[in-house]
């Protein structure tokens, strides 16, 4: 039996076991309490806000019949343990970045971001008007989850480095924090890639445990304080052009809710997605200006580095094509990307370029 078949059988068995052992959610005066665990340390700018926004939305719409309690990473389980906690019934739902769970299935990366993948707008096009949500649900059925998009950071920065990157060779031996398939691509350039929870990144960078890191973008990065450690900041990256955050519920718990409560969770998550995207994008410009005033140098990777990123990313995708779900998701995702981008480039792209030229 191959590893992925074992994972699927184990997950299904765990979900079945959870049905018999999962304690009924707390009931008090007709109210049902749900516990949400997160991959985010409490208070992490933007990402923890998105989790709290989902909960606040549900609590407001449910009018006392549902109450969601949000727990930060480490308060019940560790950041990277939330997936297993929810599938096992230890918690009712999680909020996180699904690319942290490519070990459970590599196709989960598509529901955060993949290298040279979709922008935030292209992603919701695929998710809501293509097959994206259906694929997310197909994966969820394997692991006993019901998933929705529940946040988006917008295009993420290339990251913070101790020195300027002049060519692909500069990644050889570099200790760099980057999760998901982007991290696997960077490893092909010789980097020593580490996946760390967001709450641990600052200390790792400050101590020299890592030489560089990507996090999110100017606003969240400024809040994290990376500018106190290094001044070389690449404002565009290949790895996360429009990464989504996800809400996933234990499927048995979700199925036990009333249809109106299920719809509340769906709507609460979708509204938090758009709210969170606007939160990041409305704050990034001013934050970048502050960073530059504090001595940070904003840079772009040279073309030779972008080319190397592209080649490495293609290799990572090709290594997963023997998995049927991954292959089907990848092909559908790329079809949707091309269809969306062909119009966006001709409309938004031309307008933005001309607007910036006219207005200076």
Describe the structure in your own words:
It is a single chain. With 360 residues, this protein is an alpha/beta fold. The chain has a domain at 3-151 and 243-282: 3-Layer(aba) Sandwich (D-Maltodextrin-Binding Protein, domain 2). The chain has twelve helices and twelve strands. It has helices spanning 3-21, 47-62, 82-88, 120-129, 132-143, 180-188, 198-207, 218-224, 251-256, 259-293, 303-319, 324-359, and strands at 27-28, 31-38, 66-71, 93-96, 145-152, 159-161, 175-177, 192-194, 212-213, 232-234, 244-250, 297-299. The strands form two sheets. Strands 1, 2, 3, 4, 5 and 11 form a six-stranded mixed beta sheet that branches. Helix 6 (180-188) links the parallel strand 7 (175-177) and strand 8 (192-194). Helix 4 (120-129) packs across helix 12. It is globular. Mean pLDDT is 93; it is low at 1-28.
The global form is globular
CATH superfamily of the domain at 3-151 and 243-282: Bacterial extracellular solute-binding protein, family 7
End-to-end separation in angstroms reads 62 Å
- Secondary structure: number of strands: 12
The CATH topology annotation of the domain at 3-151 and 243-282 reads as D-Maltodextrin-Binding Protein, domain 2
User: What is the CATH top level name of the domain at 3-151 and 243-282?
Assistant: Alpha Beta
The low-confidence runs, each spanning 5 or more residues with pLDDT under 50, are: 1-28
- Biggest sheet record: 6 strands, mixed
Helix content: 40-55%
What is the CATH architecture descriptor of the domain at 3-151 and 243-282?
3-Layer(aba) Sandwich
Return the average pLDDT rounded to an integer. 93
| Content-based structural category | alpha/beta
CA gyration radius, whole angstroms: 20 Å
Spell the H/E element sequence: HEEHEHEHHEEEHEHEHEEHHEHH
What fraction strand? Answer: 5-15%
How many helices does DSSP assign? 12
